[in-house]
Design goal:
It contains 19 helices and 7 strands. The chain is of the alpha/beta class. It starts with 22 loop residues before the first helix and ends with a strand.
Length: 365
């Protein structure tokens, strides 16, 4: 089996039309400064835009997939040319009507990106931020599975404001029934998620029950976190944002992102190839959960390539969803890379995108 995910999984479709990682957590961890140069996994762009809003000197956002880069470049044009309300309507993440194809024709895009969306214009018509493979997977859960577990009134009760004790009581007495346990485990099983949501190769190094681990994290989010202010939960349940928005879609952050658009650059490239061609130092890394798809040996190989290009004080932020991965002990000692397990646990405890089993913030001392 190839160690590189690009040799095992397809990257010719939009897997994610939104980013399912908590930008608030990421920004708190990386603590970006005006002089920083940052490297980020692009995905659908949300967290790269959130990073740019902090005013670092540069954010390089990279992805292996051209469709993901096309999503990011489209979002960049939306920030530059559309109002906040228009952005949400065009993306299809709030209720409302818009002639999206007409709006698309007004957006200033490169020839390559514009042609991609002209050929693939159905997502534009529908509201492209709701049309990635992972977003459609949640749509199936919301429309086909969840109604067989709870009625609409109970779903709305789940996300009403409550204190911690009331949330726990609601979950234990009204939400956590046998149908929830059975259907959740079926729908979020390795086989179903690999076919409908992610790619089966993304689970190549995962051991044990996928569904049981995600169910445990879901219980954490539904009892210990404020469900009324969790945008990721709201979108999963409603297919729209309403009372809570992720960082990149909040009205108060819109102008900060717009003011820093020239400092973000999207590239279709692997991390290894990017680092081979990059001559400077990097201060902050948003690595998503990319190590999930790699062997421990290749994880260390990639970490060493990044550490060789890291500044003193560089920060590395990354998640584990199911496969345990972090920089190896020998590399940590060689490059004086440290992590604070207590701080990492606190970050994870407050992670609103609750699918992940581990969060790491590593720092070069």
């Amino acid at each position: 089996m190839s160690a590189k995910i690009e040799n095992r999984a397809s990257f010719d479709l939009i897997r994610y039309s939104q980013v399912w990682e908590d930008a608030d957590l990421l920004l708190a961890a990386l603590a970006l400064q005006p002089e920083d140069v940052a490297l980020s996994i692009a995905s659908a762009g949300d967290n790269a835009f959130a990073m740019a809003a902090q005013g670092p000197s540069k954010v390089y956002a990279i992805d292996l997939s051209f469709p993901q880069i096309a999503c990011c470049e489209l979002r960049k044009a939306m920030y530059r040319q559309l109002s906040h309300e228009e952005h949400l309507l065009f993306g299809g993440v709030v209720a409302g009507n818009m002639d999206r194809l007409a709006v698309f024709k007004t957006l200033d895009l490169s020839d390559e990106v514009a042609e991609y969306w002209r050929v693939n214009n159905q997502p534009i018509h529908q509201g492209f931020m709701a049309t990635g493979k992972f977003e459609k997977y949640f749509g199936i859960f919301r429309e086909k599975v969840l109604p067989k577990i709870h009625n609409r009134s109970r779903i709305e009760q789940l996300i009403e404001p409550k204190g911690a004790e009331e949330r726990a009581a609601f979950y234990n007495k009204k939400w956590d029934n046998l149908r929830w346990k059975i259907m959740f485990r079926l729908f979020f099983s390795r086989s179903v998620m690999g076919r409908l949501g992610r790619d089966k190769e993304f689970f190549a190094y995962v051991e044990g029950s996928v569904a049981d681990r995600i169910l445990g994290r879901a219980k954490h989010a539904l009892t210990l976190l404020d469900t009324s202010q969790n945008p990721y939960l709201h979108y999963i349940l409603n297919g729209k944002y309403d009372a809570a928005f992720p960082y990149s879609l909040r009205a108060e952050n819109y102008e900060k992102i717009r003011a820093n658009l020239d400092n973000i650059e999207f590239r279709q490239v692997s991390i290894g190839d990017f680092l081979d061609d990059y001559d400077g130092k990097i201060d902050a890394f948003n690595l998503s959960d990319i190590f999930e798809y790699m062997t421990p040996e290749y994880t260390d190989e990639l970490f060493e390539a990044m550490l060789q290009k890291s500044s003193l004080g560089a920060r590395f932020a990354y998640w584990n969803m199911l496969a345990p991965r972090q920089c190896g002990k020998s590399l940590r000692e060689k490059y004086n890379l440290v992590t604070d397990e207590d701080a990492n646990a606190e970050f994870l405890a407050n992670d609103k995108a609750f699918f992940y089993s581990k969060f790491y913030l590593d720092k070069v001392k």
